[in-house]
Amino acid sequence: MPSPSLVIRRVVVQGELSCDLQFERGLNIIWAVQTSDDPKSTNKCGKTSLVELIQHGLGRRQESKAKFHFAPIMEQLDTLWLEIETNGQVFTIERSLREITARARVREGPYLPGIASAPAELVSINDMSDLLLKALGIPIVSVKTAKGDLFPLSFPTLMRAFVLHQEDSFGAILDKMLPEQRRADVIGFLSGITPIDRFTVEDKLSEVQLKAQELEGYFSSVQAFLIQNEVPSLIEAEARVRRAEVALQVAREAQRNVQCEIRDATSSQSPEQPGRLDNLRRVLLSIQNEAARIERSLVGLRQEDERLSEVLASLKVDRKKAQRLRVSGTILSSIEFSICPRCLLEITPEMQRREQYARCCLCNRPLRTTSDTPPRAVPKTTDIDLQIEETGEILKDVRREEEVLQAQLRRLRTEDDEIGNTLNLESQAYVSPAVDRLLGQAHEVAQREAELARAQALLGQAKALATIKERLDQLKQEQAELEDRLAEARKPYKSRLDALRQIYERILREVNFPDLRSCQINSRSLMPYIDNNLYVHTGTALKGLAVVSYHLALLELACREETLFPRMLVIDSPAVGDLNDENHEKLLHYLVKLQSGAEQPVLKPEDEGPEWQIILTTRRLIPELEPYVKEEISAPNRMLLRKRQ
Q1: Per-domain residue ranges of the chain
Q2: Annotation: CATH topology of 6-182+563-598+610-633
Q3: Quick one: residue 644, left, alpha or beta (phi over 0 = left, psi -120 to 50 = alpha)?
Q4: Closest of 617, 490, 593, 629 to residue 169, by C-alpha
Q5: Higher per-residue pLDDT: 98 or 41
Q6: Res 333: pLDDT
Q7: Whole-prediction pTM value?
Q8: Per residue in 586-612, is it b (16+ CB within 10 Å) or e — as a string?
Q9: For residue 408, pLDDT beyond 80
């Protein structure tokens, strides 16, 4: 399986300022043309802006709007469209240049007019990394930090190896990436120098290390608690439990002895005193029973009192009703109506004669009964008076009996109080001291039980501590084994490392690196040593040349062997640190040679060109590179982002 392929096919910026750049496989050049004899006139014309656009489209997370590269002209920009090809599959990524934290939109297929209305997948900036890694077939892995946390090798992190921003790349290989070991992680992962199994071990080691750290913290807290309670070990905790159990047993035995003494003392008293107390208790109990009986009788009498009172009230109401009926009948029978009480018209003799025939003189209806006709069964007031008198006598008797019972109850309660006090006083003289001793011994037993409970809790903590220590030792041992495996897995493939060294040394010679005698790559840091000195010590003017050559070597290695490097380089104006013209031209000639070698006829006629892509922004150009110039830019009239006519 060849190395992954990533091709930038098109960069489109929409807004008041815009651009539309198309790229292809192989060498692609953005040439910053001088507008005067001053080479610095090519500054600020947009070389780095192209790299910023590519990084933004590939999911780089911007720190803030203030630190965004396009902050001064953000209001004049709108949307970035980045068309890419990953392993033969074309995607178009849409990302805002104003709302830099907004989600990106990803569409399958090339950029075409009207693509904004096509369906798209909304992807957060954090998820862009996984999407691109999966599209390229690059495993999603992480490396362990010193604290044990996992640091993901995300796409923006890996992108630092093949998108070379002038500010972040040419000061050193993967400049500003900390810690320095992270540089070796990225290069080893992409180049295949580091075995891929290493990252599986990293995941397991991180999990074990975090568990061990958490368990060690818990172990320390439990140990400190036990030391504060003077139980630093499991043996001492078990000894404390044994002492507490013995003390509790002694206290319970003393309690049983006191109980036996009380029973013995009770049985050895004189016969007069127990009889006196028993008689008082019997008398007190009989008084209480009699009082209870009287209270029950009082309840019955009160209920009878209430019932009789209700009957008496009802009889009085009946007597008033009977009196009203008699009076009303007498009054109504004595009235002769001469006029109608309703309409006030005179009642004629003819109307009065109607009543002779059992009809009403007013309404002429048949008479069944009249208001002045007395009822057939009207109670006599004399009968009701007799009933009221009889009920009153019964009620008086009930209340008289109730008063007698209440007097008896008051007397019984007085006797109950007197006998109870006497019983208490006489009981205290013989029982109270023994009870006090018994209560004191019960308190002693409770204290010993509490001490045993505390000792058992500490023993449980000590046993848990021993279990934690055993588990912690297991984790430490597992961590040590994984660290040994990781050290073994970190060992680079010597053949791959030597292949990279050979390619790098050849490139250095082709770019005419001054006074080159030898070149080595450290197997741990994967940083190159030129003439036995770290490459950064070659001088400011040549450091950038050494860095670019190293990344070119990674690209060539990816084209030769199966790696995870995506066979693409974006180089942002490599003439840094006052690189001399001779070495600069040699570097450009090497790129020409690289392109020419890729353009040679191949056996497959359907081959579309080189298997790699290089996008180079440069202020210096040699004639051989002119066919590969995709855009000429200059300041201030022909900026990369400009108003289109």
Answers
A1: 6-182+563-598+610-633, 213-262+436-488, 270-335+372-429, 339-371
A2: Rossmann fold (3.40.50)
A3: beta
A4: 617
A5: 98
A6: 66
A7: 0.66
A8: bbbbbbbebbeebeeeeeeeeeeebbb
A9: yes
